[in-house]
Predict the structure.
Amino acid sequence: MLTKNQKEVLDYVRSYTAKHEFAPSLEEIRKHFKLASVSTAHHYLKKLEEGKYLSREANQPRGMSVLAGDFMGSPIMGNIIGFEYISIPLVGSANCGPAEILAEENIEGYLSIQRSMVPKKSGIFALRAVGKSLNRANIKGKTIDEGDLVLVDFEDRDARNGDYILSIIDGAANLKKYKKDKKTGQVTLVSETTELWKPIFMLPGDDWAVNGKIVGVIKGGKK
């Protein structure tokens, strides 16, 4: 049987996840309920998990899902309410301006996201955008602003004209729009931005590669 406070936390996790497409952090739960510390938020989540109202993944920020219940309020194991969720790694940052910031190879953590956000279950990772050169992009109706989390299919590297991609230029991670001239074969990486960024013309012999296609954006993904 849930206490009043436990039910309020459960309802908050459910509504937050439905709105943002990922679960709230401990700090966000603490702030929302004006709790004394994140340990209190952790205590509520632990009780909800023990009662099988929540499913949580160890050592994964935001790695929780609300479990469905029957009409008497008892939880049903393994039935995620309304959505299927998958866990993807968060692997550092990529620049949305000049190609200056190296992508981190070490995994920072994991995100639990709705399966509907991405085209497939595997081969997807997230990285944090730095810069403004895609702040007028249109990726499923979303732009990419600094601090957003960008979802990348690293197994799909067959870029086509108009795709948004993660490129590696001289060892640096970079987010751009891919354009290729049909007649000359000239590849250009362009910005869609309010800023004055010049396009990057890729020449034969340049040290660069397409390292995946951008398949989604989580707005305001800062921790």
In short: Residues 86-218 form a domain with the Umud Fragment, subunit A fold (CATH 2.10.109.10).
